[in-house]
Structures are given as C-alpha cells and as structure tokens.
Amino acid sequence: MVSLVANNESFAIKSGGHNPNKFFASIDDGPLLSTSGLNEVTYDKESNTVRVGPGNKWEEVHAVLDPLNVTVVGGRIGNVGVGGYLLGGGLSFLSTQYGWASNNLAAVELVLANGTMITASNTTNADVFAAIKGGGSNFGIVTAYIMQAYPIGQIWGGNLIFFGDDKTDGLLSGVRNFTEHYDDPKAGIIVTKELLLYNSTTLWVLFLFYDGQTPPTGVFDEFLALDPTTNDCKTRSYGDLLSSNDAFVLHGSVYTIGTETTPLPPADRPDILRAYYDHWHTTAASAQDVFGIIASLAFQPLPKSLATVARSKGGDLLDLDDDVDRIVFELDYSYVFEDLDSETVDATMVETYSGLKSLVDGYVADGSLPDAYRPLFMNDCYFRQDYWGRLRPETRQSAEAVRAAVDPAGVMQTLTQGFHL
C-alpha cells in the first residue's frame, strides 16, 4: 500500500472475484492485488471461531468445515468469493437464524491505506469494525476474517425447476406468503426466473434449504404443490448443496447485477408482485437482440425476524428495522460480447431497476405499500446505484467519519474502485 500511494498508482483488489461491476475486482493498466494466496480456513474449537482468508470461495470453506460438523454464515452458492460477500453484508441460507454474514464476524485483520495493519473487533478499533459490516472496501484491505462458528449436520435442500410461465402467479404468491409467514428460521429460499432471450426459453429455478435432515410438513408445501418439472431436493451435506448450486453459475459470460427493495405487498394485492414481474419481463425482452443474453430476476425474502436477529447481534450498516417484511430483488443480465453490447445492456439494467423503484414509490405514494425504509443490498448493487444514499443519513455520516479517520487522503476513494463514500 505504501508503494502504491507513493506512486499514485491505481489498483484493484480481487478476492473471490464474484463482483461483476467493471473494475471493482479488475483493472486495465494497473496492479491487481489478488488475495488468492490468503486461503486459510482454520477452526478454533476453544473460541468456536473460524479464521477465513479472503481468497477463498465458500465451497472451499465448507470443504474444511463439513467434516467437523460446524459452519459459518456464508454464501448460498459455493462459487461465491468470501471477501466482497462479507464486506457487502452477506445474505445466507442461515440468515434467519443468525443474521447477515457480517453480523457474525468476531474480528477482521486489515491493512489501512497508510500501510498499517490493524485488528478490528467489538473491543479493538470498534468504529472500523462497525463500518466494514456493509461498508465495502472503503476502509482498507482485509487479510483475514474471524467468524463465529455454529453446529451443523446433514441438511436438506436442492432445486425445483418449473419450465414455462404457467406457474408464475402461483410462485409469486408462494414467495409472498413464505416471506410473511416465516415461522421456521431454519428454512431458506430464493425464487428465480430465468429468461434465455436468445432462444426464448423461460424457466423458474427455486433454491431450497432447510437446516435439518427433513423439513417439517408445511414449510415448502405451497411450492411443491405446484408440481415442479424437476426436484432434486434431498438430505446432504451443506457443502454439497452449495457446490450443486454452482450449476447455475454462468462461466465465460459478461455479467451485470442490480437490485431494488420493496416492502412485502399484502396478501390481497397479488397485482403488485405481478406488476414488478411484468416490468422486469418487458424490459428484459427489449434486449433480445443482444447475442447470448440471459436475464434473471430473483426474489429474496427479508422477513422481520432477520432484522431482529441482525440488531441483536450488534447491527450493521443496513440497519434494517423489523417494522415490515421486505423482498430484495436481484437483477442479472449475462451476455457474450462486451464491446458490442455493453451500452445496450447498461441501458436495460438501468431501466430495470429504475422502473422497479418507480413502481415501489408509486405504491407507497397511493398507500398500497407502507412507507418503509428501503436500503439497497450492496452485494447485488449495480455500479450506477447510490448505495450510500439509500442508507440512513446517520449511518452514512458515521461511516464517513471512520473513513476520514483511517484514510484521510482518500486513497481508497481515488486509487481503487467500489461503492465510494
């Protein structure tokens, strides 16, 4: 860091490399600081913590932990990298039990912009520790995460796949009801629509998880009753589930990601989720001439209980209240030729998330939805989105004060990319 600053050299930091925003984990004509060699995974039984290097992917972490019957709160797909995931907050299949992944950090070790190495925890450099939980790479380069460990045995999970569109209303109703009636914190789900625009294939892919060998009757019944085309859910190890979810990772494609947040619509307003879906579908279809394009829309439940657990563990920058249930949308476009089609895909992504926000704003304005706090989830944010502007003002001010204290020259704001403060 000292050398980079002395030479005013732009650089990028790459851990697992999952963040697809251009130049967030890549660079042209500058050094790329790869943490791939920082791949330690060490369980300490006495403290019940796991020391995890940022260069790991979550499937590598669980390959070590599964035989020990312990786990950490991490990614839902094995191929996802550790570093950016934790700094962005981290949504997990275990989040309704234990909160965001960042809520389960016991400490971090990081290098500040001036080259100083520090440890941050609840008792040491506590202001930095609080700021990194959803603060991204604004405060330094993390070289190790010490994470709280939890017991785990065999779990149940897999994918339900529905080809076509005829189950759309039933699936939208199902994810709405699941989010409101989240009675079992051991259950987790992602409801995803995939649109292969280049050949007009359309399908729903559901990622199901239960922290136990078999889910109780009623947990996933509304989805199973819709008669999926395929169902590979079974009892297995946690690591096996995450690795099997890698089947849906699109290797070799240019990838973009965006997000929006909505309060959960009431049960008697199915038209609201349908309007969100229809906007996404229409906007995505407008890019059908982009070679090899695949559009994806994921519904990710954020029940009140998750917010309650997160605050009980010390909180994070998102600082969700438990006044309302929420759904976070993950919006993805993948395609083949960046030079040829990036402008079209960029415009399509902006229209997708901007249109969703306009719909939510309209429903709030006419009283159809509550006027709730709606932050953006950093892990899913597009580079043009204003992550910091959607947080509570006092949260942003606190983070800015920490940034000014540890990086007064603004090195992490000017020499590297990310969601800058």
UniProtKB/TrEMBL annotation:
GO molecular-function terms, A-Z: FAD binding; oxidoreductase activity
Domain FAD-binding PCMH-type: 1-152
InterPro entries, alphabetized: FAD-bd_PCMH, FAD-bd_PCMH-like_sf, FAD-bd_PCMH_sub2, FAD-linked_Oxidoreductase, Oxid_FAD_bind_N
Superkingdom to which the source organism belongs: Eukaryota
Keyword Oxidoreductase annotated: yes
Pfam families, per the entry: FAD_binding_4
Keyword line: FAD, Flavoprotein, Oxidoreductase
Gene3D superfamilies named among the record's database cross-references: 3.30.465.10
Family: Belongs to the oxygen-dependent FAD-linked oxidoreductase family.
Name this polypeptide is given: FAD-binding PCMH-type domain-containing protein
Origin species: Gnomoniopsis smithogilvyi
